[in-house]
Amino acid sequence: MLTSETVTVLDLETTGLDPATDHITEIAAIRAEVGADGSIREIGRFQTFVGSDAGVVIPLEITELTGIRTEDLRGAPDMYVALTAFWYFARGSVWIAHNSPFDFSFIAKIYTNGDHFACTRAMSHLVDPDESASLKDVCPRYGIELNGHHRAMNDVEATLQLYAKLREKAEINGISYRNVVIDSDERPLKYVPPGAIVRTISKTKEAV
Predict the structure, then answer these.
(1) How far apart are CA 175 and CA 187, in angstroms?
(2) Do the domain assignments include residue 68?
(3) 177-184, long-range: CB within 8 Å, 24+ apart, which pairs?
(4) 133 within domain boundaries
(5) Residue 11 is part of a domain; what is its CATH number?
(6) Which residues is 5 bridged to in the sheet?
(7) Measured between alpha carbons, how far is 43 from 31 in angstroms, rounded to an integer?
């Protein structure tokens, strides 16, 4: 049965795909109440670039993808300060991301087993198993505008709307999606968030 819940939708931009060697460049999030009727009441927004004493240089291809330049990080809070501030912003809510294993791998130090989350990429696979789960493909199917893809707040805005729609569809069809992540041949799971339930699928139509 659908009930109202408080969620925090987050998205990260990074210098690459490996949390061991790459750096978070931007964190964005929206805290909101998602109603039983699918309505969304925004509570607040969080956005920050993330700096580094080590002098992180953003690769040209990442700048071309995200629009974030190395000079944008100058003077920005370091990762510890940024993640601590985000934790206080998000605590007490359900954490939502479109690819939770990726985002959570970069913020593993503040994500704990006591948190509850939902991954809209996994939800898309579960409710629409024959369709692409890529954010740029899922959004048009549900009539959601995705402007400026690969800028964190733009992706957060779209993911929040998507979560409300996928949640309703999953609940109506009795599909379990809480704390579920997807492992597939085309995109093997590299990080499993604490408390996650792994569902393995052998074939996807997902684009990168």
Answers:
(1) 22
(2) yes
(3) 177/118, 177/122, 177/123, 177/126, 178/116, 178/117, 178/118, 179/116, 179/117, 179/118, 180/118, 180/119, 180/122, 180/123, 180/126, 181/100, 181/101, 181/119, 181/122, 182/119, 182/121, 182/122, 182/125, 182/133
(4) yes
(5) 3.30.420.10
(6) 34
(7) 5
Residue 127 lies in a domain: yes
Q: Number of folded domains in the chain?
A: 1
C-alpha dist (Å) from residue 47 to 9, 77, 97, 165, 174: 12, 11, 15, 24, 35
Tokens 């990168």 sit at which residue? Answer: 208
Backbone angles phi, psi at 48, to 5 degrees: -155, 145
Spatial separation of the C-alpha atoms in residues 179 and 118, rounded to whole Å:
5
The DSSP-derived string for 123-166 is HHHHHSTTS---HHHHHHHTT----STTSHHHHHHHHHHHHHHH
Q: Distance between CA atoms of 119 and 182, rounded to whole angstroms?
A: 9
Summarize pLDDT for 8-65 with one digit per residue, the tens.
Answer: 999 999 999 999 999 999 999 999 999 999 999 999 999 999 997 677 889 999 999 8
Could you list the residue range(s) of the whole structural domain that residue 58 is in?
5-201
